[in-house]
Amino acid sequence: MLLNYIKQKQKRLMESQVDFYTPSGVHVYYKDPFHNGEIDLEEIIETVDTRIPEHLRSEMEMVIVGWFDEFEERDLTAFYNDGILHISNAHLDDESVYTDIVHELAHSIETPYGHTIYGDNKVKTEFLEKRQLMHDLLWQRGYKAPLAFFMDPEYNEEFDKFLFEKVGYDKLSQLLQGIFISPYAPTSLREYFATGFAEYYLDSNHNFLQQVSPQLYKKLFTIQDIEKLDTY
User: CB neighbours (10 Å) of residue 125?
Assistant: First the structure.
């Protein structure tokens, strides 16, 4: 009886999660079904299409749901590569899926709009100033690491582990209030931009982002308008 119930439930789950194309032409493919069969990816992507301007979605060609080795190896729930957004099927709810999609969209536009985002170094300067302040605060609390470690804007696996494993995001969240919008934002310049992008489109009230990261906010405000982007 229990085995039949499980098989029927799995069948309903598979039937509710089928491949489809969005109105904007994005192919959504289920390599593996979501563990939570209540997640409505079609509705989530419809929300993304409604809230985020088309030109900021243009690089995403496909979404694949499933389990990939990168998720375990790099402790991820999503990643973007060559037009394809990979989403973990272990997500618990719609909100976490939506957040990951928006975050990865930010990475997708770094190539076509990289000069606009980073060319004047304003976002980079703001980021490194915050990194230096973070170094000083951590040093005072016994987390000794050289300043040069903090002044490299590129992703560094050793630095990532230092923040995640040695310091811990719970402690960072308390320590960095008013400096970074999240404990993940200091990871690298690219993640600083992506977390800000996600915050911009997750919260329609931009006061927090504008107050904490004013240069990043100005950049996000610029790139959302394709007319301003073309003449920037």
Answer: 12
Residue by residue, DSSP assigns 130-164 as HHHHHHHHHHHTT----HHHHS--S--HHHHHIII
Report the alpha-carbon angle 216-125-51, nearest 5.
Answer: 15
Q: What is the mean pLDDT of residues 23-34?
A: 91
- What are the residue ranges spanned by the domains of the chain? 13-109, 115-230
136 vs 231 pLDDT, higher one: 136
CATH number for region 13-109: 3.30.2010
Any alpha helices (H) in 28-166, and if so which ranges? 41-51, 69-73, 94-108, 114-118, 122-140, 147-150, 157-161
**What does the pLDDT look like over 121-154, one tens digit per residue?**
999 999 999 999 999 999 999 999 999 999 999 9
- Going by C-alpha positions, the residue among 58, 30, 63, 33 that lies closest to residue 45 is 63
- How distant, in Å, are the alpha carbons of 97, 165, 179, 208 from that of 57? 16, 33, 29, 24
Report the C-alpha gap between 35 and 39 in whole angstroms: 9
